[in-house]
Amino acid sequence: MEIILKKAVSGLGNGGDVIKVANGYARNYLIPMQLAIQATEQNRRLFEQEKHILENLEVKEKARAEQIAAGIADVTCTIQRRSGENDRLFGSVTSMDIAEVLSAQSVEIDRRQIELDDPIRELGVFTVPIRLHAEVVADLRIVVEREE
Asked: In this predicted model, what pLDDT tens digit does every residue of 122-145 receive, in sequence order?
């Protein structure tokens, strides 16, 4: 099926691109999530009219993401957890924990934006990337300390 992407989708393309994808992928995911529309002549004309609006919106979103990234660069998250021998934690530090600490410091981000491959299971200093926009990634410094 031929579709027009409304937004940038990783692995497919940027907003405005006309691409071919599997029918099921388009019908079950891209179109319901409003990431794309079917590429008919009417939709192509309609999308050309909306393209300028989407470009302005994309610029604003990127600027907002860069502003948040600048704020995150100055923040260090300190998380205290109980630990045992060899500085191993009882439990782990997850993206949800990091999002809670950031919200307490007045930095509002969604936990799904935190690109934590595996939960943190030991004491130390870690750098975790946060994808705020398709082109904006901020590095957050996390310090995991022993709870007294």
From this structure: 999 999 999 998 889 999 999 999
Pairing between β-strand 124-133 and β-strand 136-146 as defined by DSSP bridges: antiparallel
Q: Are 65 and 136 in contact (CB under 8 A)?
A: yes
- DSSP at 46: H
Distance CA 15, CA 142 (A): 34
The three-state secondary structure class of 16 is coil
In the chain the domains, ranked by start, together with CATH numbers, are 2-63 (3.40.5.10), 70-146 (3.10.430.100)
pLDDT of residue 33: 93
Report pLDDT digits (tens) over 79-94.
999 998 888 999 999 9
Question: What would you measure as the largest C-alpha separation in the chain, in angstroms?
Answer: 66
The CA angle 51-54-60, to the nearest 5 degrees, is 145
| Backbone angles phi and psi of 64, in degrees to 5 | -65, -40
